Amino acid sequence: MRAVHILLSLATVSLAAPANYFDGVYEFSEELADFYGKVSMYINGAKQSTSPSATCDSSKIALPSYASEWHPDQDGVSPMYVALGRGTQNYSCADSTSQSKPVLVGAVANLYNATCLAADFPDLVHLLPDIAYKITLPTDNRAAFPPANLGLMGHHYFVGSVPTFNLDTTPTKQFGIARTKKEDSIKAPANAVKGEHGAVAWLYLSTIENTVGDYKRVYRVDTASGNAPSTCEGLPAAFEIQYSANYYFFGK
Ligand SMILES: *[C@@H]1O[C@H](CO)[C@@H](O)[C@H](O)[C@H]1NC(C)=O
Ligand SMILES: *[C@@H]1O[C@H](CO)[C@@H](O)[C@H](O)[C@H]1NC(C)=O
Question: Using alpha carbons only, how large is the chain's radius of gyration in Å?
Answer without folding.
Answer: 18
